[in-house]
Amino acid sequence: MLSFISRKTTNKKMETSPFLEKRAFPRYTAKIPLTYFGSDSSKEFQVKTHDISAQGLCIITDRELIPGSALDIFLYMADNSGKIYRKGKAVWCKILENDLYRIGIKLEEPNLNPIPLVLKAIMPQREY
User: What is the radius of gyration, based on Cα positions, of the chain?
Assistant: First the structure.
């Protein structure tokens, strides 16, 4: 686990506050299409990931999700090679501008292998 010190200048005095990085896996910025359902709703919501890791992902949506909300999630591959299903839970929700929300989701086991997903999202298959 990494620990960082952020420094703020206030009235010409240097203050330090500890920041503890809690993530165990690196995050990769990738826009991967997904559909999610809340455990209390049969309505589906289609969004794209903002970033992804082995145990979590971040989405931007126009729906507020209360931390602790259980989700059923389907990730869709850019090359139409299939979809990946995972259960997850909203861990945090931050309001952005224009009535959008940024939501952190922790995925249940098994862990994802995000590198192939990211590569499929950013490097479309080309025929030579």
Answer: 17
